[in-house]
């Protein structure tokens, strides 16, 4: 069972990142559920594993094109793969930091793990319907995926 | 003190079922049902035409809520006996109603026996 | 007030002692005083008597002197005066001893009694009096002589005259008497003196005794006073003890206890746990409001204060007050040092403390009932869950299983539709509002059906969802994030329907499903087969579901149809659900749109019973192929064109121009249906779009083909399950 307040906490972390680091707010799209199969991902995905009161994962997935613009806005000329991975990890980190602040000791939240789309579907618990929240920024679109039991 | 005087009962409740239950189950011989109102506004006008001595009062009703209604009725007739009939979750409102002059409290849902006991206690010294 | 009453016995003791002491003092000291007076009198009398003891000798000497002077013709006045004097003295003595003391101006203390009233003394006094009287008679003629006893003549010289001779005679007689009487009188006086002495000694002894009694009394009083002093001290010690014990209790009791005075302030004597319960120090002197304000919401605070007002008013009865106590479970929130919050539940109990019939204080007890509340909530949650399961079960049992299955399948489809609507990218406000409206229609239909079937648990969830939509609709500005509660509720509804589905399956397996138990078709046979593997069991369930669907829908539609399945026991677990969902939608569509009524089929030269085929095959690297086919009338391109034009998807010209390859994908668009009226099985324009949605989610491919008058074939390819995915779902 997903919990709205918890999702909001994660979402707030992501939104915050764009507000602060990219100095340009992100538009939150209409959330939906993934009822079959694995949620679709973009080129890079930062995953934080959650355990404790709830188990599962929270992911931030973004396309290369968006990450490149983000890096440029942050005055980072190096748009290598490694830097893009770093950036996705950064966003995931912000999200987990927000969650730690709000949930405290009830949740154990891992450091982010970054995976690429080519490595296949996300390692998420099955039998759950992940909630996908589109994050639209400029002409690009990233997603926050919350998959918690 | 006139022990044989009949007391006029008015029921204020927006639920038909509750209204009928109170009307049906009142076994106190001294009570004479004179009318039922579904909300505070109706209650005030019914009060004017029937002049009841005893009122059972629901607290959450449309138009005018029970607490306000209690206050108005007490202002109109200080010796009026008012039994607040309300859900347990609504104790705060019940306290408010008592503070403004209601005399008894009956928790919903209630059995016929509880209703009669509450009415009997309400009328103990009338 | 009360404490003073309690102290009264303590002062009653000494008070009584004081009173007793006064009475005792009067009883002892008054006689003592009198006695002392009498002793004084007696002593005075003794002194008088002693003084007069020599008087007889004085008289004898005076009489002897008188005789000598008479013989020598001497001057007689002197011895005569002595005699007279002695008589007066002795007379005075008798008078003094005899007469009323007040007249004598002495012995005022023993006012009421003559000094020698004592019997022994009286006898001695009388003896003395009579001897004196006798003695005195002899002396009186002597003392009475006046003038000169001699006659002086030339002739005879000096000689006694007549008076002188008489005096001489009398004095001789007196001298003779005096020898006898003087001794007697002296003896009587001695006797009297002895008696007086004895009396004096007696009085002294009596007085001493009184003194001793007084001393003893004083000692006794002292002892009693001492006892009281000791007992007072003991009482004081006990009081101190009691105070210490009270303090001990207040120090150790877990309950918060305090008194509220009429000003609403907390008294100094409160239990120490108050500080812990409220995390405040000091607590005394605070008002209830000050105590509660930091830890309870404004509304609770207001209620608490109102309630306390009611408590102070004498108008409300004790029972009423107890029954409306709104503070039996007060949620309090404390800021913890680390910036977090701690929630606890406190129970307040109020007792009115009356003095002189008026409420003087409120005794308040506070208990931490956090554990109880938590437990209670857990129990309530469990109960609610159990209750809702029971409700669900009852609801489910009341519904015809087929209807229920159909409802579940339909609802599942509708919800997927809703989810697809959520997912459909929309950027402008108008688009979001359109989204709300179409979702609303879908959800409203679910709610309506659920209520028709009496599935209250579904109905209430659908209702909540609708409410969410309504409030969203009322917002001036809508953002994507505002839909989050809907996504969460949708997830809940999905879960709930899943559990309902499981429940239905379980009931069917346990033979509670009356309708299916009577059946002897494929499903029943399959169910009767030994449950070899989980895979086979899952396949059986799937086949049962599809069988029942075909059975029911064909009956409803007045059509005859049979289902043939192949390879459903090879559906891998991750695809089971997708296969079922796709098959349900496709079969329903086939039954509604494809299979013709028996009479029409016969006209067309087909067997009256239509055949539906579900074929599943593992094609290795290519993935899995699912083919669902019917031998019905095929798709009507004409009706697709009409529907597309009606729904404004295509212009009439475009529609006419497009060929089957371009027209058929329209069937997978949301909201597209060729069925004019929505009914239970199809026609919401949902079914095929749901299939498309499922396939897209799984990264599969979808194809549809049709031979007019012969068949419709839906073909789905699902990707092979890669090693990565297998690991991922572990």
CATH superfamily of chain B: Response regulator
Main sheet characteristics of chain B: 5 strands, parallel
**What is the top-level CATH class of chain B?**
Alpha Beta
Uncertain spans of chain B, ≥5 residues at pLDDT below 50? none
N- to C-terminal separation of chain A? 6 Å
The fraction of residues assigned to DSSP E strands of chain B is: 15-25%
CATH class of chain A, please? Alpha Beta
Describe what this molecule looks like in 3D:
The complex is a heterotrimer of chains A (149), B (126) and C (730). Chain A is an alpha+beta fold and 149 residues long. Chain A contains 3 helices and 8 strands. Chain A has a single domain, classed as 3-Layer(aba) Sandwich (Chemotaxis protein chec), CATH 3.40.1550. In chain A, 34% of the residues lie in helices and 29% in strands. The model of chain A has no long low-confidence stretch (mean pLDDT 84). With 126 residues, chain B is α/β, with parallel strands linked by helices. Chain B is built from 5 helices and 5 strands; from the N terminus they run βαβαβαβαβα. In chain B, α2 packs parallel to α3 and α3 packs parallel to α4. The model of chain B has no long low-confidence stretch (mean pLDDT 82). Chain C is α+β, with helices and mostly antiparallel strands.
């Amino acid at each position: 069972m997903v919990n709205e307040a918890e999702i909001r906490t994660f979402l707030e972390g992501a939104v915050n990142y764009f507000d602060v680091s990219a100095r340009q707010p992100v538009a939150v799209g209409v959330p939906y559920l993934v009822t079959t199969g694995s949620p679709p991902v973009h080129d890079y995905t930062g995953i934080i594993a959650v355990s404790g009161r709830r188990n599962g994962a929270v992911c931030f997935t973004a396309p290369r094109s968006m990450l490149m613009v983000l890096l440029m806005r942050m005055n980072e000329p190096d748009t290598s793969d490694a830097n893009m991975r770093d950036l996705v990890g950064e966003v995931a980190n912000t999200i987990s930091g927000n969650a730690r602040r709000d949930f405290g000791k009830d949740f154990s939240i891992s450091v982010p793990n970054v995976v690429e789309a080519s490595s296949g579907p996300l390692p998420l618990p099955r039998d759950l319907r992940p909630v996908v929240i589109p994050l639209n920024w400029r002409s690009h679109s990233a997603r926050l995926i919350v998959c918690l039991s | 003190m006139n022990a044989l005087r009949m007391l006029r009962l008015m029921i204020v409740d927006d639920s038909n079922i509750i209204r009928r239950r109170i009307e049906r189950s009142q076994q106190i011989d001294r009570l004479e049902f004179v009318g039922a109102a579904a909300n505070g506004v109706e209650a005030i006008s019914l009060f004017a035409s029937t002049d009841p001595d005893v009122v059972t009062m629901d607290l959450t009703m449309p138009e005018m809520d029970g607490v306000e209604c209690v206050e108005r009725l007490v202002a109109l007739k200080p010796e009026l006996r008012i039994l607040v009939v309300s859900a347990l979750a609504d104790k705060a409102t019940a306290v408010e109603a008592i503070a403004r002059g209601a005399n008894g409290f009956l928790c919903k849902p209630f059995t016929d026996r509880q209703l009669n006991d509450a009415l009997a206690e309400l009328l103990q010294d009338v | 007030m009360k404490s003073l009453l309690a102290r009264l016995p303590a002062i009653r003791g000494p008070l009584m002692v004081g009173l007793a002491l006064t009475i005792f003092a009067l009883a002892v000291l008054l006689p003592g005083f009198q006695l002392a007076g009498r002793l004084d009198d007696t002593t005075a009398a003794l002194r008088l008597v002693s003084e007069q003891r020599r008087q007889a000798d004085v008289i004898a000497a005076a009489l002897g002197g008188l005789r000598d002077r008479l013989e020598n013709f001497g001057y007689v006045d002197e011895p005569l005066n002595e005699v007279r004097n002695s008589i007066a003295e002795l007379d005075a003595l008798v008078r003094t001893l005899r007469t009323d003391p007040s007249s004598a101006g002495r012995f005022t203390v023993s006012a009421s009694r003559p000094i020698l009233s004592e019997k022994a003394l009286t006898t001695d006094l009388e003896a003395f009096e009579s001897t004196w009287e006798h003695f005195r008679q002899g002396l009186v003629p002597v003392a009475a002589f006046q003038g000169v006893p001699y006659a002086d003549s030339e002739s005879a010289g000096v000689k006694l005259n007549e008076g002188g001779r008489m005096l001489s005679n009398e004095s001789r007689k007196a001298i003779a008497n005096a020898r006898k009487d003087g001794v007697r009188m002296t003896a009587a006086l001695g006797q009297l003196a002895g008696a007086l002495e004895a009396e004096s000694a007696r009085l002294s002894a009596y007085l001493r005794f009184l003194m001793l009694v007084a001393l003893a009394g004083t000692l006794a009083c002292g002892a009693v006073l001492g006892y009281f002093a000791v007992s007072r001290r003991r009482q004081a010690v006990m009081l101190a003890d009691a105070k210490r014990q009270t303090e001990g209790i207040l120090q150790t009791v877990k309950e918060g206890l305090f008194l509220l005075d009429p000003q609403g302030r907390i008294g100094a004597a409160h239990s120490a746990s108050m500080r812990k319960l409220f995390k405040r120090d000091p607590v005394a002197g605070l008002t209830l409001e000050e105590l509660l304000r930091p830890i309870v919401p404004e509304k609770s605070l207001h209620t608490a204060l109102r309630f306390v007002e009611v408590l102070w008013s004498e108008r409300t009865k004790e029972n009423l007050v107890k029954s409306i106590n709104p503070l039996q479970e007060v949620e309090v929130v404390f800021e913890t040092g680390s910036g977090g919050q701690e929630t606890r539940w406190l129970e307040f109990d109020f007792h009115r403390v009356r003095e002189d019939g008026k409420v003087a204080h409120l005794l308040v007890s506070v208990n931490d009932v956090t554990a109880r509340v938590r437990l209670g909530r857990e129990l309530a949650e469990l109960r609610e869950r159990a209750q809702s399961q029971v409700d669900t079960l009852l609801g489910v049992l009341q519904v015809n299983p087929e209807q229920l299955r159909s409802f579940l399948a339909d609802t599942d489809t509708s919800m997927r539709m809703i989810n697809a609507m959520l997912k459909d990218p929309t950027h402008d406000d108008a688009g979001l509002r359109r989204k709300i409206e179409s979702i609303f229609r879908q959800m409203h239909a679910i709610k309506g059906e659920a209520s028709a079937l009496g599935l209250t648990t579904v109905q209430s969830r659908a209702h909540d969802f609708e409410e969410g939509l309504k409030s969203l609709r009322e917002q001036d500005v809508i953002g994507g994030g505002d839909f989050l509660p809907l996504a969460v509720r949708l997830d809940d509804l999905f879960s709930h329907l899943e559990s309902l589905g499981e429940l239905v399956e379980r009931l069917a397996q346990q033979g509670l499903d009356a309708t299916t138990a009577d059946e002897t078709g494929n499903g029943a046979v399959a169910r009767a087969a030994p449950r070899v593997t989980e895979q086979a069991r899952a396949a059986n369930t799937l086949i049962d579901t599809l069988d029942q669907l075909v059975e029911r829908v064909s009956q409803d539609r007045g059509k005859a149809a049979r289902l043939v399945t192949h390879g459903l026991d090879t559906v891998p677990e991750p695809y089971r659900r997708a296969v079922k969902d796709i098959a349900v939608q496709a079969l329903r569509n086939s039954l509604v749109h494809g299979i013709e009524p028996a009479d029409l089929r016969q006209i067309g030269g087909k067997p009256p019973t239509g055949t539906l085929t579900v074929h599943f095959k593992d094609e290795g690297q290519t993935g899995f192929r699912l083919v669902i086919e019917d031998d019905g009338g095929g798709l009507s391109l004409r009706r697709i064109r009409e529907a597309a034009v009606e729904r404004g998807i295509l212009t009439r010209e475009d529609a006419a121009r497009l060929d089957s390859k371009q027209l058929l994908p329209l069937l997978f668009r949301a909201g597209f249906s060729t069925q004019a009226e929505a009914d239970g099985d199809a026609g919401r324009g949902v079914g095929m779009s749901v299939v498309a949605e499922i396939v897209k989610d799984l990264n599969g491919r979808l194809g549809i083909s049709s031979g007019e008058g012969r068949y419709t074939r839906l073909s789905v390819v699902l990707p092979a399950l890669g090693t990565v995915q297998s690991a991922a779902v572990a």
